[in-house]
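Protein folding task:
====================
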Amino acid sequence: MGMHGSGWWSYIRSNTDEKRPSVSMALIRRVLTYARPYRREIVGMLVMILITTGLGLLNPLIFRDLIDNVLLEGGPNYGDMSRLNVLALALILIPVVRGVISVVQRKYNATVGEGTIYDLRVALYSHLQRMSLRFFTNTKTGELMSRLNNDVVDAQRAISDTIVSIVTNFITVVATLAVMLTLEWRLTILGVVVLPLFILVARRVGNLLREIIRTQMQHNARMNAMMNETLNISGALLVKLFGQADTETSRFQERAKSVRDTGIDRAVLSSQFFMLISLVSVIGTAVVYWVGGHLVLEGAFTVGTIVAFGSYLTQLYGPLQSLTNAPVDFATSIVSFERVFEIVDLPLEIDEKPDAVHIGHTEGNLVFDDVTFAYDNSSSSLSEAKRFWEADDEGIHSGTVANQNNNSQAREIALKDVSFKIKSGQLVALVGPSGAGKTTLTYLIPRLYDPTAGRILLDGHDLRDLTLSTLSDNIGMVTQETYLFHDTVLANLLYAKPDATQEELEAACKAANIHDFIAGLSNGYDTLVGERGYRLSGGEKQRIAIARVILKNPRILVLDEATSHLDSQSEALVQDALARVQEGRTSIVIAHRLSTILAADHILVMNRGEIVEQGTHAELIAHEGLYSQLYETQFRAVENAIAEEPLAGD
């Protein structure tokens, strides 16, 4: 509900003691480093500010000369038409010159502002690309978007807008006061007498206006959060499946209504704010004309002087109004830099050593040596962006991602003392109940995480001693949840090898049993797959992912062989593609099918983060342990169900 009239006025007054942001010299110095590449533009802006300020001071003097010397009878140049023409021409030329200079100044300003946004965004995005997977599991995507958009834009204002505005207004105030004192010191004092009242009104009403803006941003955040949740594919699908379209529309109406009402409150308060500021200005101007009028009648000074003073007061009060709010505006912009620096300063958990070894082609021998791993959700996490003008919103900020656990995090230690060896070219199957740590183990191989203790060796080298490009070039993964960009089939495939030829693309797709399907699409390889590949079935997406990893041609293959959600025909195509891609490669497969287990050279049986059994199928069956139980209750039953399922189309 909006709070109109005295109700919202009293509400705002009770909430004007919010904490002001603090600004340190160290932070300011760091902020100024982002201005260094634009020193030339900033100097150019300062020069233009001085020129435009100087030109702006000429108009009142021209009016004074025009009235006292040319127009008033008895003036030294009374009736001088040529002087009148020159002065009138000057009144035209000055704003024209100022306008041209302002255009150039705006170009410099935009160059600095947009350049700063560019520099900040690239620095942020580059750093985020180097953050570990742990960081992204602990951080809200919306919060990262806020840092890359809202905070970056707010930060650049500190350099391109706030600082420039402060400098401009300061120069204008000082220059105007100097000229006014030169003309008549008594009228200058009269004009400045109202300054305390001016500051009082500006600060008081400015605080109230800022609180309304804070409330409006809160309501906007709630509305945007709802749109983000319900207008993506997953949210829209959920709403439709449960028939909640009317409910969601009603909820949106309430949130949009709050935004509307606070917008009205803001507009009303803004009008009152500028009305009061104008009233104070009018009082100052009236006092000057009243006292100055008496002095004119007494012959103390001329009519032109009063007219000039009226113009100078107008030029003085506007910048003074801006300067009264400058400390808060400056602090707001600077603190946005602090939000940006929070990300830039986050330590890189998965970093490359300066002397890291690069191996162009590995043999594919893997060794896990007493590997222990724990999910530490407290590290590399990003705090909520709490801007000082924004209120807390329980509906948005409750329940952070950091409190959500992966399937292996029900216990403190995800992996404990895991040791095994995989020889080049072997197929190793990982089996075990849900939450045993299988996926976590596979994430350690491409170094998405580093072990908490122990080490992982690739061809005798600790993964932490190898370059990250060595790992990405030689290790390929096909995860259970296939992710495709909202782009063409071709673009998604080329993500693995941007310089791949059409022949290589088609060969990879044929090996993945997906080429004929792609060729049959309306636009072939140029067909859009939709958001997250929603225009494709599960089997089609999975085979495209397999074709993508075939195109990459890694030496080591990590697969989550999740095919339980596919029909038998799709599963057969996927399994055939997986068999082809595994040929001649070291393969680690989270196995869900008996045929994969039987084909494995070695089987690792996991339970609660530990390898409890390992060996061949025959050896593990003879052992009559956990594997034997899983074989009887899980794998054989799944295989029988698949065998009995009728064939269905993709």
Q: What stands out?
A: The chain has two domains: 5-14+24-344, 366-376+396-644. The domain at 366-376+396-644 is CATH 3.40.50.300 (Rossmann fold).
